Amino acid sequence: MNKSRIHSPRRPTFGRCTFSAALASSLLVGCLSEEPAGIGASPAAAVTVKFDFFHRPLPELPLPNDVATRVDASSPTGRRINASMIAATRYEVRTRELIDQLDGWGVFMPITVPFTGPVDIESITSAHPPDDFAFGDDVIYLVDVDPKSPTFGEFQHLDVGGGNYPVVLEELERYWDNDPRSVTNSLVFEEVDEDKNGNGKLDSGEDTDADGLLDKPNYLPGSTPAADDLAGRADALMTFWERETNTLIVRPMVPLRQRTTYAVVITRRLKDEKGQPVGSPFPFKNHEMQTDALAPLAGVLSKQGQSLDDVAFAFTFTTQTIESSWLAVRDGLYGLGVQKHIGEQFPAELGGVEPLLDIRDGTPFAGRKSPFIMHHEDWSGALSLIASQFLNAKPGSALLEKLEMGHKYIDYHIVGWYDAPQLFERWHPDGTLRPLNDQSWPADLDTKPAPVRGERVYFHLVVPRKEVSARGEGKPAPLVILGHGYGGNRFDAVSMGGFFARHGMAVLAIDDVSHGIDISDDEFEQASGILGMFGLSPALEAMVRKHRAIDQNGDGKVDSGVDFWTAYLFHTRDVVRQSALDYMQAVRILRSFDGKRKWHLDVNGDGKEELAGDFDGDGKIDVGGDASLNMFGASLGGIMSSIVGAVEPELDSVVPIAAGGGLGDVALRSIQGGVPEAVILRMLGPIFMGSSEAGSDTVSVQTLIPDVNKEKQITLGSVPGVKAGDFIVVENHSIGTRACAFVWDDAGVLRWRTGLEANVEDKVAVHFYEGDAMLLGSTECAVQAGKTPRVTFDSFGGNGSFQDRHWKVGTPLVALAEGLGLPRASPRIRRFLGLAQLVLDACDPAAMVPFMQERPLTFGDGSKTKTNMLIVTTAGDMNVPASTGTSIARAAGLVNYTEKHPTYGKSLNQVLIDTFTVEAVHNLKRFTDPAGNGVIMDIENFSGGTDLWGTDVPRLDPPLRLGFDANDALKTPVRDDSGISAAIFPFPVPEGQHGFEVPGGLIDRFRDNCKAACASGEDCKCDAIVADDKHFDVGAYMFNLMAHYVTTGGKSLADDACLSRDDCDFIAPVPETRTFE
Questions:
Q1: Low-confidence ranges of the chain (pLDDT < 70)
Q2: Which of 129, 430, 805, 922 has its CA 20 to 30 A from that of 251?
Q3: According to the model, what pLDDT value does residue 979 have?
Q4: Please, what is the average pLDDT of the chain?
Q5: Do residue 628 and residue 749 come from a single domain?
Q6: Are residues 704 and 779 in the same domain?
Q7: Domain hosting residue 725, numbered range
C-alpha cells in the first residue's frame, strides 16, 4: 500500500463484507480487511458530515464527490460518475445511464455537504460575510489539490449565501393552478411554518403539503418577516443552508478547471448548535479512498496559516472534460485529430442558394437574369407592409422610420444553405423520433471518433452597400453572425440587418437546431398575398418554408425550438453544442472565400461560375475571406454568441445580449415562455389536480402536463361529495409510486394538487379518502390502518386525446406524460438542479467564456481564441435572469469580486449585488417610483436622465460602465492591444425587461405619452418628437454602440450621446436609391 499516506497507522477492522456493503461499493466504498489511515484522526463530534450510502431513493453524501465515481482506464480522467441505475421512471434511468458516461463532475455545479444534525448558522455567516473573500477564518474551503494543475495549491473563492446566485422569483404563482406552495419566494426552499400550535411536532391538520414533515421556513435565525413583506422574506431566506436536510450549499464564484481534482475542506470553525466543532463520519478526517488525493492538503493549508488540525472533514472530486471536447470537434472540422472525418465528410462549401424573385414573364422582375439576388429596392415596397403586419411597426411610427432607413444601407439579400455535420441521430430507422435524451453527442470526443450525419442548414445573408462598406474598396465587408432567440429563426437578419448595414457590416443568420418560422397557415396566406403582389413569392417560400423546425407533438404543425430548453438534460446540452458546431461550419465556409477558389454556383445568372463568396458577380468577394468575423445575439442568441466566441478562434468580437451562465440558475427563475413548461413542469409533473365550482362539492380530476414547451390541462372526470380536509392519494400501479394531497377551501372553491413519478401509459388510480386519512408523519403517503377510499377514480370519464394518444370513456386511467413528480420547495428540486448543472456544464456559457481571454484555447492548426467581448445584461431581466448574465461577466474576468474599488468602497461585484442588479426582481420594491411601484435601478445611466422616466427611477452615481475606463486601476476589463472587453447593464424600462426596444421604439412611447397629455384640439406636435438631447432612444443607442463595436472587431467602444441621436460621425449618410432593369 502507498507509504505516502499520513498520520494514523492502519488498524484492523472486524466484521466482513456483506452483500449490502458490496452494493455500496458501487460508490467506491471498498470492502477491505484492514482500514487505511486517513489524513488525520477525527475527534469525536455530536454532529458530523453525513455519509449514508443506503439512504433511499439516493445515497446522502457530500457532492460532488469522487467516492461516487468508478475507476475506468478508458476515461481521460481515469474515472466515470457511478450513478445507481435503480430508479422509478424510464426518464430517470436513461438520465443516470448517460451521467454514468461522464468522466467527472461539474465545473460550475453547487457543492452540497449534508450533516447529521443542525449547526450554528452564525458560525457560517460570521466567517463568510458579504464581499469578504479572505481565507483566514472560513468554515469551508475549496482547494486545487491536483499536482498536474496550473493552479495547484490555489484556494478557490466560494459564494456562501453572498447573493451571487439568488433564487427569489418574480412571479410566485407562475407554476400553475392549485399550487400548495404558491406563496414561496422560490422553487427550492420552504417558507411555510406548519407548526400552527408551536409545539414543535407535527399534529393532525398541520401537514398542508402532505409530505409527512413539519415544515419550517428556511429563514435565518430570528427572522420572522411578514407574509406580504416580499423583500424581507427574500433577505431572510437562507440559500447556503437547507434546514430540512441540514445541508450546507456553496457555489464556486467562477467555473473550475476541467479534469482537475479539488478538495472540499470543512473546518472545525463550523460549530453545531451547542458550539462544538462538527466532525467526520469516519475514524479519520476523510474517506479511506481519498487519502492519496488529499496528500497535498497539509502543505497547501500551511500556505494559508492553516493545518490539518483545523480540518473537521475533507473530500475530493474531479471535474469532467469541457474544452478538450470542443478542441477535438473543432480540429476535426478542419481535418485534424481523432475527429478528422468530420471535415473530410463535410467540406467548406455552400450547398446552394434559393430563388427570391419571380422572374417569369408578366411579373415585376421579368427579364432579370438571376432570381437569387434580392436588392433592397426589389422589396422596399413590401417591407413596410410586412413590418406593420408582422413586426408591429405601425405606419408613421419612429420604429418603422428607423427600420426603413436602415434597410436603405443594404445592397442585397441572399438565402442559401450548407450541409453541417451533426453528432447525434434524430430519427429511428422507421422514421420516428428518438427519445430526446438519446438525441445527444457521444462521450470521449477527444479519444473516440464520433458517428456523424449531415443536416441542411439554411442561412440568410444581408450585404451592405458598397458606398458604406469595405466593398467600395474591393474588399469583403466585415460580417456579424446573428444568433436568434429561443423559438425564433434567421429572419432576424431581415429585421435587424439594416442597423448593422449602416455601419458597413454584413449580417449572416442561420436557424439553430430545431428552429424555423412556425407561422400559421393564415399568416402564411396573408404574407403570400403581400409579397405576391411584388413578385416576391419565392422569397416567402425561401424564408418561411426552408428551415430546421419539425413537428414534435404530432399536430401536423412545425414547432420552432421546442426541444431546446427541456428537462431532458443531455439533449439540451447537445442541441446547444450542435448549434455551436453549425455556426463553426459557417465560419469555416466564410473563411474559405479566399478570392481565388471558384464555386459551382452561378448566383448572378451570367452562366459562369463566380469566385466563391462573390454573390453579385462583380469579380470581388463580398464577405468572408480575411475580413473581420464577429457574432451578436440576444437571449438564446446571446448564449450561442458566448459559446461560439469562446471556442472559435476566427471570431474577433462577440456581443452576447441577455445571455445566461449557470443554466440551472436560468431554469430555476426564468419567466421565459416555454422554459417553465418544458423544464419545470416536467420536474413537477405529471401533475394531478382538481377544483370545484364555488360552493360545490363536486371536484374535477385533471392532469397538467407539458405539450412540448407549452402546458396542457386535461379534464379526466369529476368526483362528487368531496370536502375540505379530505385526503387524496394518486397511485401509480405500474411502477409503485404514490403522491398525495389534502383538499383545501379557497374562498368556497375546493382545490387539490400533487405531482406523480410516472412513465407515459403507466396505470394510475386517484383515491379519495374522507377526512384526514393520512398516516401522520408518513413521507410515502401511507394511509391510516382501516381507512379505505370513499371513491377510487381509475378510468377516463370521457373521450379525449393528447398528441398521438386517444382514449374513450371508461378506459383505464393512465399517465399521459412522463415526469419526476418533484414537490415545489423541497430538497428534491435542489438536488435535481444541481445534477442538471453537472450535465449542462459542457455547454454552459459561464464555463466557456474564460476561453475568450483569460485562458485561450490553442487548436491543432496553431490558432488561438482571442475574442473581444461586450457582455450586455439588461437591467431587471427575468426571462434569462440578470444574475446569470452577471455570472458570465464574472467568469470572463470582467467583474472583479476580490478587491475594493476606490470609487465605491466595495468590489464591483458587490456593487451589482447591493444595487439589486443581480437579484433583478422589481416587485420586491427595493426601489420605488413616485407612485410606489417597484422599479429597477439604472446603474449605467447612458441616458443621462433623458429617457422616458427621468427622475422617477434611481440611477447609480457615478455609473458603473465596466470597460469604458481604459485607465481602470483594477484592469477591469481585460485589455490588450487587440481590443476592448466590457460588461454593461443597460436600463430598458423601470420594471426591467428581457433585452431592449429596437431603434425608434422608445421614441414612439414618447410620442404616445405626448398625445395622452395633449389637450383636446391642441397641436402638441407629438409626431415631430425625435431622438435628441431631451429624448433618449435606448434602441438606437444600443444598436449603434454594438454595431460600432463589432465593426471595429471589438477595438472601439463608444458611449457618446450621438448613438441615441443617430448622428455619430462614424455612421455614413444614407445611400441614394437605385433603379434596376
A1: 1-36, 57, 966-977, 1077
A2: 922
A3: 86
A4: 93
A5: no
A6: yes
A7: 686-818
